[in-house]
TrEMBL record:
Domain of life: Bacteria
Database matches in Pfam families: HAAS
Name this polypeptide is given: DUF1700 domain-containing protein
Keywords: Membrane, Transmembrane, Transmembrane helix
Keyword field contains Membrane: yes
Transmembrane segments: 85-111, 117-143, 150-171
Transmembrane helix found in the keyword field: yes
Length: 206
């Protein structure tokens, strides 16, 4: 039995027995399995050491009846509290070290996001400039045909059309780059959230 199968079966059994805090118990057992695996115990052996699901549910039902959790859950809660206290102390003592590192990390993060968007921004600026210059050139070329020579006006008209074409191309490039960079930005943000936020105990059921 895999970890996911065990937890799904445990969740179903707890819900079937109308355990009010079912998901919290499931989360505790999920973390307990992870702890055993981190200590070098195989997943199957870690699951087997918890005992049959029927026995676990029966133990939880009895514990609910006396407003207390099973021993294994109590140990897990105590370990979690001790870990939080230790982490809090380390964070306070290590502030002079991790503070600047956090600042550097934030600067790098902003730099990454900026690099993602600098290409479409430049393309949009170039496209806008080319279209503006091309539009002005069209008007100027008509004036040149009348006021100056027809050949000069025709040359200016051609250059204006080239600028307009280049501007339209740059705007389209900026549009497509923005579309793909939005996807890249969302993916990067999701990756950061996934790796830095505290995982909830029910994530394994997704």
């Amino acid at each position: 039995m895999t970890k996911k199968e065990f937890l799904v079966e445990l969740s179903n059994s707890l819900n079937k027995n109308q355990i009010a805090d079912a998901q919290s118990y499931v989360a505790d057992y999920s973390e307990l399995i992870d702890d055993k695996v981190d200590n070098g115990q195989p997943v199957a052996e870690a699951i087997a050491s918890l005992g049959p699901i029927e026995e676990i549910v029966s133990q939880i039902r009895k514990a609910e009846g006396i407003a207390a959790r099973p021993k294994v859950i109590i140990e897990r809660k105590q370990m979690r509290l001790s870990t939080k206290i230790l982490l809090s102390i380390l964070l306070v003592l290590g502030a002079p070290l991790w503070g600047p590192l956090l600042g550097v990390a934030l600067v790098l993060l902003v730099l990454v996001y900026s690099l993602l968007w600098i290409a479409p921004f430049i393309a949009a600026v170039i496209g806008t400039s080319f279209i503006g210059a091309g539009g002005f050139g069209l008007i100027a070329s008509l004036v040149a045909m009348i006021k100056a020579t027809f050949a000069f006006g025709l040359f200016q008209l051609g250059m204006s059309l080239v600028l307009l074409g280049g501007g339209i191309f740059a705007i389209m490039l900026a549009w497509y780059l923005s579309k793909y960079f939005i996807i890249a930005t969302v993916s990067l943000t999701k990756w950061l959230i996934k790796h830095f936020k505290q995982q909830k105990g029910v994530d394994y059921l997704a």
